């Protein structure tokens, strides 16, 4: 492990930072957290106000006595990584940094204050702190909440086609075939601007390769450190997953469909399934569907795993002009009230804060036991220990579009991912 730790300490020298033209002042701010008098602490993420607004409000209420105000800015998701990288590279950026898959990259680049000795850390589980903890055990942030994804399904369309909820990948293919035979679109998946293909693939791999197949989660860690390649590990399971293309579940036409259109297709009752999580629950609920959620599936009905883990982690920018106020703001954001607020605002989300529990609606009855067992994981979090995972995800997104379009093979994609990893490891 000493060699791996040394790699983490020298990571800042090789992290590639992109360019962007956005600035905090030029972006649209959410309604919550508008700055008033006193010390202003800035924070930004891609989350819309309905996701994070109540948490910002709770934090601001706690900060009133210190005359500190959190000023929140929303940056579009497809611009966030570039924007934040550019800001941090110039010694700027928000006082509180929020990031998801790339949070370990921010840690490795030296962008965050070490908060290992702060009491705020003690309120969170080890799993929740994983993405914000370096190889030496130092902690640089706390998770905003926990996310997971599975497969929403329309119960009426399943009944119409005589389909049962699938518990294995073979059953999923059979169900899709039956839905198509009943002239029902099996899956809505806008692949033009979303990560639905990644969730489909990684959900399958978690269930059919890492947990119930020839692989293990350690393969990803070894891959991150250059001690293993995806070639020789992913080939067979990725080829098996591609049966979704052969069966017409994922189609070339979807590569041109935007996410908003695919969500509307599902909520309008025109497709039987939709891969997503708590962030889309309310929109589906408001559509009046009779729906539920089941887990991503693989080889074993009795050992299923949802995709998921810590959502965006939050930490203090080392270049903050108001470090003391930023630390107090982080403590307020990581308080029990703020943690409960963000979970309550996202039905089905969960918290890594000890004692905070979310509300799991009836539609989650099939996945609630998996959450209780801790069967929530995702491969790209394991990549993040020694490479900027978001860069890998960007490559995987485009690669899967090419595979689904028939422009390249699954083996070509695997080689592309191995080559990308070789160029970006710390």
Provide structural commentary.
There is one protein chain. The chain is an alpha/beta fold and 426 residues long. Helices cover 41% and strands 13% of the residues. It has 19 helices and eleven strands. Strands 5, 6, 7, 8, 9 and 11 form a six-stranded mixed β-sheet that branches. Strands 3-10-4 form a three-stranded antiparallel β-sheet, covered by helices on one side. Strands 1-2 form a two-stranded parallel sheet. Strand 1, helix 2 and strand 2 form a beta-alpha-beta unit. The longest helix is centred in the C-terminal third of the chain and has 17 residues. It is globular, with a radius of gyration of 21 Å.
Backbone CA Rg: 21 Å
Which band does the percent of strand residues land in?
5-15%
Shape annotation: globular
Number of strands: 11
The assigned structural class equals alpha/beta
Unreliable spans are 1-36
Largest sheet: 6 strands, mixed
Number of helices: 19
Helix/strand order, N-terminal first: HEHEHEHHEEHHEHHHHHEHEEEHHHEHHH
How far apart are the first and last residues' alpha carbons, in Å?
A: 15 Å
**Helix proportion range:** 40-55%
What's the pLDDT, averaged over the residues?
90
Structure summarized in a few sentences:
The protein has helices at residues 2-9, 49-63, 77-89, 103-108, 126-129, 155-161, 169-181, 196-210, 218-224, 235-241, 243-246, 259-267, 281-286, 323-333, 336-344, 368-372, 379-383, 389-405, 410-424, and strands at residues 39-45, 68-74, 96-99, 142-143, 146-154, 185-188, 271-277, 291-294, 306-310, 313-316, 376-377. By secondary structure, the protein is of the alpha/beta class. Strands 5, 6, 7, 8, 9 and 11 form a six-stranded mixed sheet that branches.
């Amino acid at each position: 492990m000493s060699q791996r730790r040394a790699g983490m300490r020298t990571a800042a020298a090789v992290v590639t930072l992109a360019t962007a033209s956005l600035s905090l002042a030029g972006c649209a701010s959410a309604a919550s957290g508008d700055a008033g008098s006193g010390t202003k602490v800035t924070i930004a993420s891609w989350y819309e106000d309905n996701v994070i607004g109540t948490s910002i409000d709770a934090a601001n209420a706690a900060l009133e006595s210190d005359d500190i105000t959190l000023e929140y800015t929303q940056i579009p998701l497809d611009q966030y990584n570039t924007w934040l990288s550019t800001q941090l590279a110039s010694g700027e950026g928000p006082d509180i940094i929020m990031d998801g898959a790339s949070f370990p990259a921010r840690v490795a680049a030296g962008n965050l204050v070490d908060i290992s000795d702060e009491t705020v850390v003690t309120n969170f589980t080890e799993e929740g702190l994983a993405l914000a903890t370096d190889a030496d055990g130092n902690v640089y942030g706390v998770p905003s909440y926990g996310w997971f994804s599975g497969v929403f399904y329309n119960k009426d369309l399943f009944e119409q086609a005589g389909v049962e909820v699938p518990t294995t990948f073979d059953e999923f293919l059979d169900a899709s075939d039956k839905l198509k035979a009943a002239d029902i679109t099996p899956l809505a998946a806008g692949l033009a601007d979303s990560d639905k293909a990644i969730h489909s693939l990684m959900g399958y791999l978690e269930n059919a390769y890492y947990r119930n197949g020839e692989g293990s989660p350690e393969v990803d860690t070894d891959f991150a450190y250059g001690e293993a390649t995806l070639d020789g590990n992913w080939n067979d399971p990725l080829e098996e997953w591609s049966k979704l293309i052969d069966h017409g579940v994922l189609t070339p036409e979807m590569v041109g469909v935007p996410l908003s259109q695919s969500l509307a297709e599902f909520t309008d009752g025109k497709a039987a399934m939709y891969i997503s999580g708590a962030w889309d629950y309310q929109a589906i609920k408001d559509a009046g569907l009779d729906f539920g959620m089941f887990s991503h599936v693989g080889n074993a009905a009795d050992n299923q795993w949802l995709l998921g883990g810590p959502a965006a982690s939050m930490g203090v920018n080392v270049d903050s002009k108001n470090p003391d106020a930023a630390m107090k703001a982080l403590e307020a954001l990581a308080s029990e009230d703020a943690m409960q607020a963000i979970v309550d605002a996202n039905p089905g989300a969960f918290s890594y804060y000890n004692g905070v529990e979310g509300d799991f609606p009836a539609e989650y009855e099939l996945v609630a036991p998996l959450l209780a067992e801790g069967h929530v994981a995702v491969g790209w979090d394991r990549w993040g220990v020694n490479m900027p995972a978001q860069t890998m995800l960007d490559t995987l997104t485009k690669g899967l579009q090419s595979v689904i379009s028939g422009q390249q093979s699954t083996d070509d994609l695997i080689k592309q991912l191995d080559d990308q990893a070789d160029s970006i490891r710390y």
